[in-house]
Amino acid sequence: MTLQEVQRWTASRPTLVDALGIEITEVTADYLEGRMPVDGRTHQPAGLLHGGASVALAETLGSLAAALRVDRTKQACVGLEINANHLKGVREGWVRGRATPVHVGRSTQVWEIRISHEETGALVCISRITMAVIDLPAAERTT
To answer: What transmembrane ranges does the database entry give (predicted)?
Structure first.
């Protein structure tokens, strides 16, 4: 899938991606990248980037990247586990995340997502998501 196709796919209906202002910025054979604003939508009460928003960005990037590795007419990828270590606080600007594969198997995938402050490059959060690859029921399959 091209970057433009992924962007159309994620914009096809209102989701958390829209609510948080997440943008997919790059799709390659080796990684998927996106960014998210650090503003009122993604702040916690003390004015810092909310850890849950970082996890939402990580899960978005990891899930999309995993889905691009399967035949989406026959299979889907669903999250089994995600973890995150929050390393640095951010008050404003943008954070950028990059999902890279650790393991892409027949029934599971593991992705590492590194989130950095877009301006300074400082590592803000490192996350790992494990995805299950499931077969779609025959009624949901497309050709």
So the answer is: none
User: Residues near 28 by Cβ (< 8 Å), separated by ≥ 6?
Assistant: none
| pLDDT number for residue 46 | 96
Range of the domain at 116: 3-140
CATH number of the CATH domain containing 20: 3.10.129.10
Report which of 31, 37, 23, 39 is spatially closest to residue 114, judged by C-alpha positions.
31
Please give the tally of structural domains in the chain: 1
Q: What is the pTM of this model?
A: 0.94
Q: Which position among 59, 81, 92, 119 bears the catalytic label? A: 59
Strand blocks (E) in 1-138: 23-27, 32-38, 75-86, 93-104, 108-117, 123-135
Q: What residues does 17 pair with on adjacent strands?
A: none
Say whether 59 is catalytic.
yes
pLDDT category, 143, cuts 50, 70, 90? low
CB of 96 closer than 8 Å to CB of 33: yes
